[in-house]
Write a structure and sequence with these properties.
Length: 180
Amino acid sequence: MNLVDLMKGVFVQLTTDETLLRLLYCAPENQLDNPLDKSKENILDMDIEAKSEIIDNVMYPMDKKFKLDLKSRFSRINYYLNERRPDRVYSSGARKLINNPMVSRQEVVVDIYTNIEIDRIDFRLYQIIERVNKLLDNKNYKQFTGMKLDGGYTIMQTPDGFIGYRLVYYVMSPQLSGCD
């Protein structure tokens, strides 16, 4: 199981989507201010330093919720690996679920944090949730078979002034033994 390839694949999927980057970075001034308006500059067309700075601010490959402050008026996605365990299959001979040592189930967590003032204007958190799900659900990453949504729920303990939502996905992959 190559976890580095999985994390790289998720990173590329999330950071090469103009719509998602605008939803994360562009704070609305009022209800008529659309972050997806064609008159706004494309983040992916910016010079490499500006684009990298924006991506570094809105994407973290770890749980880093307590580095958020209200001065920065953008949303953030933290993505990281969670539980990994053998897949469970039903054995008719044993009449119960047993571990399948040949296949692993790896969870990928995506935490989304949005400034509550921004969310009040245009329901930004829900827009980001929908976009992330569209980008990640049913995608394949090298030897990992289609990423599936396992569930989602509100994050109760968020930094002051932020609301959050956690999406949990899983992928299946062959459990390789020995050294590569």
